[in-house]
């Protein structure tokens, strides 16, 4: 049995060593492909793998066609929009994620983003404080709930909305449920986005929502760039000189937008929400354990292509 870790953006060396230990202790072969430049390298490396651990690496039909022995792919992380689920199912490959394992890292970044933008990207002009401001959390899953808890401790008022979580559960978790997205966008100083990229959510946050935000508001995206309608975002930022956008996933036309909007926009150079030693360890080790458990006992608890 061969387990391949294929990560364009590698885990920390400690996390990789932990994964290797779990794989070898289970009696399996361990292989890794890190920082690969071209998808063809993944296609070649996966040829004799029985199991695959990835991060945001694209698991396309080409990869799945080449992986003749593949039985399981674990996305070490939450969002699995990088994996072609239909192709995996057609190849009888089980796909899992590791929900919650990197959530704290992403939640901390969302909080840091709010402070960074409130302090004018750490330039000396007079900024503002997040204490006393209202935060709207779009999707109240593992990351959203953690952002809410941390924001509350920092003195923010927290509102949230989630199509899959009833209002009373949101209230029980200490946040005010929003009646609608429009209601939340129009009443919050910050909106933190935690929705996955799905056919329903792609391009769903655009001009109509963003332009409803109150004066000086900031949109915070540690989710996926695809959920933003970039033309709508650009239009809203151009019309309203008070609005701000910060993202862990640069818009396609980031250079031009940065030029136009200066300190009102910021994007990290590489997605870094989950890039902490702790999150690497948690998600990497969970992925390795899930694979061993799947092979030894058939446990498919975190399967996402059922
Ligand atoms: C996730 O979906 O878990 C995060 O976006 C992290 O992605 P990464 O593993 O590519 O950093």
Write a short abstract of this structure.
By secondary structure, the protein is α/β, with parallel strands linked by helices. It is built from 12 helices and 12 strands.
Structural write-up:
The chain has 306 residues and is α/β, with parallel strands linked by helices. The protein has helices at 13-25, 39-45, 61-66, 85-90, 103-118, 142-153, 167-172, 181-187, 207-210, 230-239, 254-261, 277-297; strands at residues 2-7, 29-34, 51-54, 72-75, 94-97, 134-138, 157-161, 176-177, 190-193, 218-221, 244-247, 265-267. Strands 8-7-6-9-10-11-12 form a seven-stranded parallel beta sheet, sandwiched between helices. Strands 2-1-3-4-5 form a five-stranded parallel beta sheet, with helices on both faces. Helix 3 (61-66) links the parallel strand 3 and strand 4 (72-75). The radius of gyration is 20 Å and the shape is elongated. The structure holds 3-phosphoglyceric acid. 3-phosphoglyceric acid is lined by residues 9, 55-56, 77-79, 102, 271, 273-275.
Relevant terms:
306 residues, elongated, binds 3-phosphoglyceric acid, alpha/beta, 38% helix, 5-stranded parallel β-sheet
**Main sheet strand line-up:** 8-7-6-9-10-11-12
- Subunit arrangement of the protein: single chain
Strand tally is: 12
Instruction: Report the principal-axis shape.
Output: elongated
Rounded mean pLDDT score: 98
Radius of gyration over all CA atoms, rounded: 20 Å
Main beta-sheet annotation: 7 strands, parallel
Low-confidence spans: none
- Proportion of residues in helical segments: 25-40%
Distinct compounds present: 3-phosphoglyceric acid
């Amino acid at each position: 049995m061969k387990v391949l870790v294929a990560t364009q953006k590698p885990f920390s060396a400690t996390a990789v060593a932990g994964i290797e230990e779990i794989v070898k202790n289970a009696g399996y072969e361990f292989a890794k492909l890190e920082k690969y430049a071209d998808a063809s390298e993944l296609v070649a490396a996966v040829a004799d793998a029985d199991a695959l651990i990835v991060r945001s690496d694209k698991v396309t039909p080409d990869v799945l066609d080449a992986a003749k022995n593949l039985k399981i792919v674990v996305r070490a992380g939450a969002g699995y929009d990088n994996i072609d689920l239909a192709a995996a199912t057609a190849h009888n490959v089980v796909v899992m994620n590791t929900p919650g394992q990197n959530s704290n890292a992403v939640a901390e970044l969302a909080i840091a983003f709010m402070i960074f933008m409130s302090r004018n990207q750490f330039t000396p002009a007079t900024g503002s404080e997040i204490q006393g401001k209202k935060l709207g959390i779009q999707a109240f899953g593992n990351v959203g709930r953690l952002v809410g808890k941390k924001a509350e401790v920092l003195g923010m008022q927290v509102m949230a909305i989630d199509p899959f979580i009833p209002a009373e559960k949101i209230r029980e978790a200490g946040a005010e449920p929003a009646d609608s997205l429009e209601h939340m966008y129009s009443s919050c100083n910050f909106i933190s986005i935690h929705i996955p990229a799905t056919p329903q959510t792609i391009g769903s946050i655009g001009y109509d929502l963003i332009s409803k935000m109150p004066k000086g508001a900031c949109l915070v995206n540690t989710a996926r760039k695809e959920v933003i309608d970039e033309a709508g975002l650009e239009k809203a930022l151009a019309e309203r000189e008070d609005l701000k956008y910060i993202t862990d996933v640069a818009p396609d036309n980031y250079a031009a937008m940065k030029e136009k909007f200066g300190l009102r926009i910021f994007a990290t150079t590489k997605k870094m929400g989950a890039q902490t030693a702790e999150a690497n360890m948690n998600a990497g080790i969970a992925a390795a354990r899930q694979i061993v458990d799947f092979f030894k006992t058939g446990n498919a608890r975190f399967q996402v292509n059922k």
